[in-house]
């Protein structure tokens, strides 16, 4: 009888542990080359406030691992506490989704050397940002020309410069809208719509909204996008 009771209790404990583990549906592993001692924080934005999901203490090894609960694919932050250093290169944004994600980077070039694998939304977002950065570079060049003109070091047409900037902005918005539309079966679509083109003509946003799959529409960013669109349509 005692053995039977012990077996039942053991099974209950095992089931409880398994249930707890299943709640943590995102496994994050990684390596920060050059970092032997320090703290890492997994964070997310909740109600306009950055909250910490987990704290990882590194002491002697640059490898790290953690498990967190993720209700829906969303942007998380890997924050590196450099201690006495005041470097701004310490907060790595990544598009997390349930499953396994690996983050490899370097202490000296925490953001620029980061390689993130295991998330399709992250992969798509990196593709998107690589093109958007080109539009940003083009606009920066035009702004640079304006500054040089103000200092008398370059002659430009202010009207032509303004037209070029406006054209780049329009192309940037259209690219973002088309990217979101093409990838409306992933949560990156409503995220881009909410963060980069929320003030775009509502007919383009409406097309993106209608193209979202049921799963995406029911995700964190999908719900927020639907709420935003409902408010926009009231004002139109």
| Oligomeric organization of the protein chains | single chain
**Which class of secondary structure composition applies to the elements?**
alpha+beta
The largest beta-sheet arranges its strands as: 4-1-7-8
Helix/strand order: HEEEEEEEEHHHHHH
Q: Care to count the β-strands?
A: 8
Q: Report the major sheet.
A: 4 strands, mixed
How far apart, in Å, are the first and last alpha carbons? 73 Å
User: Stretches where pLDDT falls below 50 for ≥5 residues?
Assistant: 1-22
Question: Average pLDDT value?
Answer: 89
Taken from the alpha-carbon principal axes, the silhouette is flat
In short:
The chain is an alpha+beta fold.
Summarize the topology.
Blueprint: H1 2-23, E1 26-33, E2 37-46, E3 49-59, E4 63-68, E5 74-81, E6 91-96, E7 99-106, E8 115-117, H2 120-150, H3 158-182, H4 188-195, H5 202-211, H6 214-217, H7 220-235
Parallel strand pairs: 1-7
Antiparallel strand pairs: 1-4, 2-3, 2-5, 5-6, 7-8
Characterize the structure shown.
- This protein is 49% helix and 25% strand.
- The protein has helices at 2-23, 120-150, 158-182, 188-195, 202-211, 214-217, 220-235; strands at 26-33, 37-46, 49-59, 63-68, 74-81, 91-96, 99-106, 115-117.
- The chain has a four-stranded mixed beta sheet, with helices on one face. It has a four-stranded antiparallel beta sheet with strand order 3-2-5-6.
- A hairpin with an 8-residue loop joins β7 and β8 (115-117).
- α2 packs antiparallel against α3 (158-182) and α4 (188-195) crosses α7.
- The chain is flat, with a radius of gyration of 23 Å.
- The N and C termini lie far apart (73 Å).
């Amino acid at each position: 009888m005692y053995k039977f009771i012990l077996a039942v209790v053991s099974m209950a404990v095992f089931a409880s542990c398994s249930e707890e583990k299943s709640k943590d549906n995102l496994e994050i592993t990684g390596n920060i080359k050059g970092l032997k001692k320090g703290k890492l924080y997994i964070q997310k934005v909740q109600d306009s406030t950055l909250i910490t999901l987990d704290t990882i203490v590194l002491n002697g090894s640059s490898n790290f691992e953690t498990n967190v609960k993720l209700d829906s694919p969303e942007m998380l932050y890997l924050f590196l506490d450099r201690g006495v250093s005041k470097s701004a290169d310490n907060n790595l944004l990544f598009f997390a989704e349930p499953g396994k994600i690996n983050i490899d980077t370097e202490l000296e070039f925490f953001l620029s050397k980061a390689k993130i694998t295991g998330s399709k939304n992250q992969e798509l977002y990196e593709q998107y940002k690589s093109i958007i950065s080109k539009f940003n570079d083009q606009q920066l060049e035009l702004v640079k020309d304006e500054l040089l003109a103000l200092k008398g070091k370059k002659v430009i047409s202010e009207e032509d410069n303004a037209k070029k900037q406006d054209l780049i902005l329009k192309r940037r918005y259209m690219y973002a809208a088309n990217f979101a539309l093409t990838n409306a079966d992933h949560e990156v679509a409503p995220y881009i719509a909410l963060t980069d083109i929320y003030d775009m003509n509502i007919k383009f946003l409406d097309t993106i909204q209608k193209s979202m799959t049921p799963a995406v529409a029911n995700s964190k960013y999908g719900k927020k996008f639907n709420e935003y669109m409902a408010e926009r349509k009231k004002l139109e």
